[in-house]
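[step 3/7] fold_predict: job queued, chain A
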Amino acid sequence: MKKNVNFITAILMWLISYFYIDNTFNTYSLGFSITIFTTLIVGLSYWYIIEHGIEVSNESYWYMAYVLLIGLSYSIFSASGLRFIKMLVLLSSLGYWLLVVSNSRTSKVIDHNIFRDLFMKIFIKPISKLHLLTVNLFFKVSIKDKKTKNIVYGLVIAFPILLVVVALLSSTDSTFNNLLNTFINLKFLENINIFYLVVSFLLASGFFSALFININEKGNNNYKEFYLDKTIIKTILISFILVYVVYLISVSYTYLNYQVVDLKASQISSYAKSGFYELCAVSFINFILFIFSRWLVEEEDKNLKSLLCVIGIQTLIMIALAMLRLFVYIGIYGLTYLRFNALVFMVLLFITVILFIIGVYKNINYTKISVLIGSFVFLVLCYTNIGKLIISYNYHINNFNYYDYYSYGYESIPYLIKEYNESDNNEDIKNIIDNFKYDLNETRYINHTVESLNYLKMLEEMK
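[step 4/7] structure written:
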């Protein structure tokens, strides 16, 4: 019975993965297709779990609802500047729901083990057992020969690297590129793309192995604890603290110089932009350092807690400096998706570091609180037309340039139409609008969103 369930799940997993790859590789906006993909993958996983006699807890339904809500948001807004982040969070949330529903988590509540569980049980272990899809698709075929198994493993490992190499080589020789295009565009069984078929098989292998392992091979959820001596941790923290003290002194000196010198807007904005993303990176490194310093020590003492608080406060100062630079730059050049996302990320990081500092002295589950806050904010962003907010802000501060339409995506269409109606010299705007109209008309219905369909209607009604 289980073999039949595994076989049906493996086949359907491959079909769902092909559907995902086919729509992801061919479209600007993923639209309804991602909502359908999310529903199918959750539904199939749920059926697999039920068929294996696992009792689904009430808690897991909340996680399932969260995953489905993220998937549903793809059908509403295009979210041009959030697509990669949304997909990353969607897959991570899907993976964690799988751990919850299969009762495979290291801890029964959200704590610091969430990151370790996602990395080990949803990424590392499934990759190490990608052959499970093949085994369950052809469960009557048994590969007993060790050499044959090693050949299969070698092909699985080599394939993703070969994809990169082939892509690089195709740009160096036209004949090879034509040969490659012939292979990629080879159609089999009515428009099935062989290249997508292979890629989707690898993706399905990852999905299936993650599902199979967490249902059938739970094993021992306990990891061997690894600790470092407190002296090592303290030395590391003191080294970082000293570097940051010197840095903050130098930043103060630079800031005072800027205060007494009359600078142009371009010079101020250049200073604001320079180092912003580096400060974001350093703040995130400090965040990771803060977490691991607590995980890798068996027992904290007063001195270690003080050092953690100091580096936490220094991190807050650097986050604040990065945000001040960003506000100055936004004030001069307006908002973009990257600046908006960076601002949200820094605010969340600021809140998280504060919670971690409080957690040094008070017994609170700072990881759970941080994850819940981050998840709530992300869901709000999914159901907010961020592109419209960004363009509206830029438009009202007279910083909207219709030539930058590619930075905004479809969200700029209402403002382009307004510019077209109010402008005398509107030929350039008309060309941009026509390009948008052509793209939307060429987009398959399954890759549209409610928003993009409204924009298409708006363009068709335009005089």
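[step 5/7] annotate
The longest helix spans residues 302-333.
The chain has 20 helices and two strands.
exit 0
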